[in-house]
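ok new one. same drill as before - C-alpha cells go in, u give me an amino acid for every spot. 346 of them this time. try not to just spam alanines like last time pls lmao
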C-alpha cells in the first residue's frame, strides 16, 4: 500500500429494511472512497442515509437490514465479514464517536473499566500497563485528575466530559479512521468548539482519517477537506470543501447553503427549502429532489440523474439533469415555493 492509496472503498452499497409487507430501500448504491488522513464531511437532512452508510459498512445494522455491495478497508472486504473480523476492525482500525455519549457509555461501569476494556481488546493491555495508558488518554483529551476520574461513573461527568471520554475510547485502538456522527449535537456552543478542536488536533497529530457526519455546514467547512452531500439515500454532490461553498452545483446543495443565516447585512428571512424529505417507501420517480426544485421539468421525473463532473475541477461531481443551467447561475438557486421552516435541516 502506498500512502496515497484509498483507506476505504465503498462500491454500490445498498440497504433494504424489512417492513410489514415488503423491504424498503434506504440506500441506493453508494459509491465513496476515503484516502488515508483525509477529512470527509457528509451532510444532508435527517433521513438521507448519512449514518446508515457507515453503520452498514461496519456491520452495525440489525437483522432486519439487508445489505449488499462492497466495502473494503485497505483492500480487504469487510461487508459481510464474520464477527471475529469485525470485532478487530470496529474500535481498532475504525472507531466511531456517536452524538449522545450518555447512551454510548455503560452507566453500571466506571470510566476506567470501560476504557480498560477497549485497551485490552484492541491493544492487549492489562493491569498497570492498561491503567497508565488509560490515564494518558484521559489526560490527552483534557480531563484533569485522570486517576481520580477513572474511578467515577458516567453520571458523575458532564455531557462534554463524557464526549471526551468517548474520544479517548475511540483513540484506545489507535484507529486509522474515526467516524464522528454528530459528535457535538448535545453540547453547548463553547464545549462544541473545544470538542471539535480536540478531534482536529488529534487527527492531525496521529494522521488519522476522519468522517464527520453533521447538519452543521459551518462545522464541516472548518473541519474537512472534502464534502459529500446526501439526499434520499444517494450521494448527489461530492467535492472539495472550498468548492462546495464557492461553487455549489446541485440545487439541493444551494438550498442548504442559502438557508444559512448571514451575520452581515440587514436582517432577512431565511430562504428555506420547501417541502420535506420523502419517506423511503414513497420516493418520487426520477430525481427524488424534483418535487422541491424550481428547475425541475418532466425530464427530471423520468430518470435518476448520474454523477458527472461539475465545472473544471474533475474532483467536483454532482447528479443533476440541469447541471449546466445551475452552473451558469451565480447566486443560490431559488426553491420551488415560498420559504418555510419545514424543509430546513433538522
Amino acid at each position: 500500500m502506498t500512502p496515497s492509496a484509498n483507506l476505504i472503498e465503498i462500491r454500490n452499497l445498498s440497504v433494504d429494511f424489512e417492513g410489514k409487507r415488503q423491504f424498503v430501500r434506504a440506500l441506493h448504491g453508494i459509491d465513496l472512497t476515503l484516502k488515508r488522513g483525509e477529512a470527509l464531511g457528509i451532510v444532508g437532512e435527517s433521513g438521507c442515509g448519512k449514518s446508515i452508510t457507515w453503520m452498514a459498512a461496519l456491520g452495525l445494522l440489525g437483522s432486519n437490514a439487508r445489505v449488499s455491495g462492497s466495502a473494503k478497508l485497505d483492500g480487504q472486504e469487510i461487508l459481510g465479514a464474520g464477527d471475529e473480523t469485525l470485532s478487530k476492525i470496529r474500535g481498532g482500525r475504525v472507531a466511531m464517536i456517536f452524538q449522545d455519549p450518555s447512551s454510548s457509555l455503560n452507566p453500571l461501569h466506571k470510566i476506567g473499566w470501560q476504557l480498560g476494556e477497549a485497551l485490552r481488546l484492541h491493544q492487549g493491555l492489562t493491569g498497570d500497563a492498561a491503567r497508565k495508558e488509560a490515564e494518558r488518554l484521559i489526560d490527552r483529551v483534557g480531563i484533569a485528575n485522570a486517576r481520580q476520574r477513572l474511578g467515577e461513573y458516567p453520571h458523575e461527568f458532564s455531557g462534554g466530559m463524557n464526549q471526551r471520554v468517548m474520544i479517548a475510547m475511540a483513540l484506545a485502538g489507535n484507529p486509522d479512521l474515526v467516524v464522528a456522527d454528530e459528535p457535538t449535537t448535545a453540547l453547548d456552543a463553547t464545549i462544541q468548539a473545544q470538542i471539535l478542536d480536540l478531534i482536529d488536533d488529534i487527527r492531525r497529530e496521529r494522521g488519522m482519517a476522519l468522517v464527520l457526519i453533521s447538519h452543521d455546514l459551518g462545522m464541516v467547512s472548518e473541519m474537512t477537506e472534502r464534502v459529500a452531500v446526501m439526499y434520499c439515500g444517494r450521494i448527489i454532490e461530492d467535492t472539495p470543501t472550498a468548492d462546495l461553498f464557492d461553487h455549489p452545483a446541485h440545487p439541493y446543495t444551494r438550498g442548504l447553503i442559502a438557508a444559512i443565516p448571514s451575520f452581515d447585512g440587514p436582517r432577512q428571512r431565511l430562504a428555506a427549502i420547501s417541502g420535506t424529505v420523502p419517506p423511503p417507501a414513497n420516493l418520487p420517480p426520477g430525481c427524488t429532489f424534483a418535487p422541491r426544485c424550481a428547475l425541475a421539468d418532466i425530464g427530471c421525473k423520468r430518470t435518476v440523474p448520474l454523477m458527472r463532473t461539475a465545472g473544471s475541477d474533475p474532483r467536483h461531481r454532482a447528479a443533476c439533469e440541469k447541471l449546466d443551467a445551475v452552473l451558469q447561475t451565480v447566486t443560490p438557486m431559488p426553491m420551488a415555493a415560498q420559504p418555510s421552516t419545514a424543509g430546513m435541516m433538522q
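The mean pLDDT is 88. and btw The CA atoms of residues 9 and 44 lie 21 Å apart.
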